Here is the input.
Amino acid sequence: MTLVAVRTQPRAILVSQEEVVSVAISIRLTPEDEARLEALARRTGRSKTFYVREAIHEHLGELEEQFWADSVVQEWENSGRQSRPAQELWAELGV
Here is the structure.
């Protein structure tokens, strides 16, 4: 396994007169994933950090939504309220 991350302190970056603080984290990758990431970074001239950050930005919203939906379903199931098939409700509403 490969450990990716170097910085241990928050770092301030000046972007368009606004201060953006980044925080370092560590992740463990399989050798295959690290090799793919390294090859992509080499091929494009961008850093591995850039691509890890892009992947997080791309998928974090989806993960948040998925876990929110799971918690809503769990809350409904734990409430004891009755549910019914969507087709039945739509028919009743004339949809």
In short: The chain has a mean pLDDT of 83. The two ends are 54 Å apart (CA to CA). Residues 12 and 25 are 15 Å apart (CA to CA).
